[in-house]
Model the fold of this input.
Amino acid sequence: MSETDDQVKITIIREARDVYQIVPKLMSARAVEVDTETTGLDPLNDRVRLIQFGLEDEVFVIDTWATGPDVIRDCFAAFFSSTSVLKIYMNADFDLRFLSSNFGFRHRRIYDIYLASKVLSNGISAHTYHHSLAAIAKRYLNVELDKTEQRSDWSADVLTDSQLEYAGNDVSIMRRIMQVQIRLLQKYGLVDTVRLENNAIVAVARMELDGVYVQPEMWSEMITELTVEYLEATRKLKLAFGLPNINLNSTQQVKKALAAGGIVVESTNSKILQPLARQHPVVALLLNYRGISKLLSTYGYGVPGAKRKKNQVFFLERINPRTGRIHPNFILVGPETGRMACEKPNVQNVVQIGKAAFRQCFIGQINPATGKRNKIIVCDFSAVELRILAHLSGDANMRQAIIAGGDLHVACACLMFGVTPESIIAGRDPITGEKIHGPNYWMRSASKSISFGLIYGRGAKSLAEQLGVSIQEAKGYMQKYFSIYSSIATYLQDCADTAVRTRQCRTFIGRIRHFEFEWTDSAARSSVEREGKNTPVQGGNSEILKYALYLVHTALDDLGYTDMGVKMVNAVHDGRTCRG
Done:
C-alpha cells in the first residue's frame, strides 16, 4: 500500500494481499462511496483501470491491472450484491455496467447522487443540463472540483500521482453531497421517488448491458422495400408538382410548388399540412414521401443519395460484433414527467406500420450452447394510464368498467355511443386469436383517442384532425365523454388549476415537476395546464414500470433464472420484454 495525506487519507492499492485486507472494512460499513476510472466509455470493449472505495475517513484506490481481475471478483462479489451496505455512486448506470461487464458483479442497494440531483431539479431550467459531478458539488456544497484529469490516459502502464489523487478526491466528496441531498429529499417529500430511481437503475444498467437482438437480414429486407417505396413516392410527388427537378427537402421550393397549385401555407410543418391532405392529393403524397424518408433515416441508411451526417451511426451499425446485439442507452429520468427515454438507438418506439413492421425483427437470438433460438416474452399493463386516471379521479363509471374486466376501450365506447360490445368486436379468430372487427369498431378507436387525448391535454381541433371529423363533432364527443366520466373532468381541471396556481404538480409517488412561466403569457399558461393534467398520469405510469423493472430483475436473480439465461432486454412505456 502507499498513502498520500491531503484533505482525505488516500490509500493506493496494487498488491492482491492488500485488497483482501480492506474487504472487512467495506463489508462492515453502513455506506461506501464507489467510483471507477476506465479506459473508455464502452463497457463491452473498454476496461476498468481503477476502483475507488470511500469510507468516512479514508479512500482506497485499487489498480485492478496490478492486482488482476480474479482478485477483484473474489473479494468484491459479495460486497456489490450486499443489501446491508449502501453503495453511493455518481451516475451509477456507467459504473454498474462496467463493473458487471469486467467482473460479473451483480448489484443491490445503491444511491446515485446524479439521479437524486435530477429529481430535485425537475423542471428548474437553470439546472436542466447541469448534473455533472462538478456542477452537483458546486450546487450542494459550493465546492469547486478540478476535473482536469478526467480525460487523461487511464490505460498508461504507470498512472501519475495527479491521476491517483484525482480518483481519490472524486469519490471522497460523494457522501457529503448525498447527506445534503437527503435533507432536501426529506424536506420536499421526494425520498420515495429517489428510492424508486435507485432501485430501477440497477435493472436498467443490466438491461443495457445484456442488449436486445435484432434479426439483421429481416431488417435489411424491410429497408430494401422501403427504398423502393421511397423512389416511387419521389416520382409520384414530382409528377404531381409538375417539377421533375424540385428539391423535395427544400421548404421554400415545396411552399412555392404548393402555392402554384393554389395551396398557400405559412409552413410545411406536418401539423399544418395534415388537415389539407384529404382535400389535396398532392399534400397526401408529400406527407407520405416525408414519412418514408423519416423511416429510412431512422431505421435504414438514409434516403438514396443523401450524405451521411457527421458522427452519424445508422441503426444496424449499432449491433455489437461481440454480442450480436444492440445495446441502447436508456435514460431513466428523461422527460420531466419522469418517463424513461432511450437513445443510440431508440428501441422503445420502433414502428409497426405496413411494410415497415420493424418490431417483427426483434426475435430470440440463437443460443450457441444449444443451437436453439431463445424465446421472447412480451408483457404489458392493459390500459394502464386509464387505470391510473380512474384511481386518481375516483370516477365511479371508469372504476366499474375496470372491475368488470374485458377491453376497457370497448367498455368506454359502449357507454359513449350506446352500442353493444359485439357490434365493436364480433369475436376472435379461432386460429390466430386476432380480434374480428365489428361494424362499430371505429368507436373503439374513437374512444381510445378521446381518452388518451384528454389525458395529454388535447383540444377539440387536435382530436378532430386525428379522428377525421369536424371540430364540432369532436367537441360533441368530448362533452359526451365527460358527461359519462364527470369525476375525471373535475379531476383534470383541478390538476390544471393547481399546476398554474402552485407552479408545480406531483405524481402519486410524490415526484415534483416545477413549472416556470410568465403569468401574462397565455400560451405558456395553457401549456402548463396541459402538462399539469398529463404529468400525474404519465409520470405514474412510468413509476409503475420502474417498480416492475426492479421487481422482475430482482426475482430473476433471486430465483436463479438469470443464471439460466433469462434476461430483460427492453422496456417500453407500459411493458417489458424478456428473453430466455
User: Anything to note?
Assistant: The mean pLDDT is 92. The first strand starts at residue 2 and ends at 5.
